[in-house]
Amino acid sequence: MTTFINTQLLHLIIALVAIMAWVGLNALVLVYFERKFAGHIQRRPGPFEVGPHGILQPLIDGLKLMGKQLLTPDGADSVLFWLAPVLSFVPVLLLFAPIPYGPVLTGMEMNLGILLILAFAGFNSLALLLAGWASKNKWGLLGAARAVAQAVAYEIPMLLAVLAVAFITGTLNLTEITTMQGAWPWQWNIVIQPLGFIIFLVSAFGETNRAPFDLPEGESELTAGFHTEYSSMGFGLFFMAEYAYMVVVCSVCTVLYLGGFKGPFLDGWWWFLAKTYALLFLMIWVRWTYPRVRFDQLLNINWKWLLPLATFNLLATALFIKL
């Protein structure tokens, strides 16, 4: 029994270390790709000076953030102010644990893996609320209020889309959902749940505060939203957390709808990364293509379109299974 516990603990520690390295590497890669992608869409080179084609620019920016002074605004609640970025970033490490990146590349095998991800992802909303409220800045507080309203709204259709897949597969285990899908695209869940896939993807933009739904960070009217007063690694943790949550939602979408690590020729982590990064590039492409919507439009998209469609999709799925 003791040997089993020690083995499980060692496996979990190795998984957490690998996840931390994976999150850091993803942040560097995605920042570079986003800047380059934005540059090409806008007919400019993007970062070009530091390293070949600016490849070292994200690393230099990270070092610059770590070297800056940590400042607490006058009148702010210093404990909650600095707790917020930590609370936004730390739960990310648990979100990656139940995701099967390959046949044997799962940090922590769980029967309720999807439930763990949905539960701990909610901590980000609490972190954004603390960041805006504790900084004693009215623009930060308005940004936090927007963030909470947006997160609460878009969690509901996303949850309903996930439930439809759970109804079909009969499990909340991400590894089992992957194995129930075939190797070829017509054997993936997206074929029988195309509406659920679209709802999940649109909700993912809202959950991760990505354009055109990045209202909590509306620079034109709110300076920088909930992280107006943050500098140095306080801002850096929020920045890394945003990209980490992007990777999480794209990874979950890959498992639920795109066959996970399964591919036409040989199953493995390379298929998982290819599908996940294809979705990430789609999120980047949308950011630099579509303008930011108004806040009333943001909520109307959810309450008038996504929620009714997600409810209809769930009921239709339940009826199909019953018949």
UniProtKB/TrEMBL annotation:
Pfam families: NADHdh (PF00146). It is an enzyme of class 7 (translocase). Keywords: Cell membrane, Membrane, NAD, Oxidoreductase, Quinone, Translocase, Transmembrane, Transmembrane helix, Ubiquinone. Its EC number is 7.1.1.-. It is a multi-pass membrane protein. NDH-1 is composed of 14 different subunits. Subunits NuoA, H, J, K, L, M, N constitute the membrane sector of the complex. This is NADH-quinone oxidoreductase subunit H. It comes from Pseudodesulfovibrio senegalensis. The gene is nuoH.
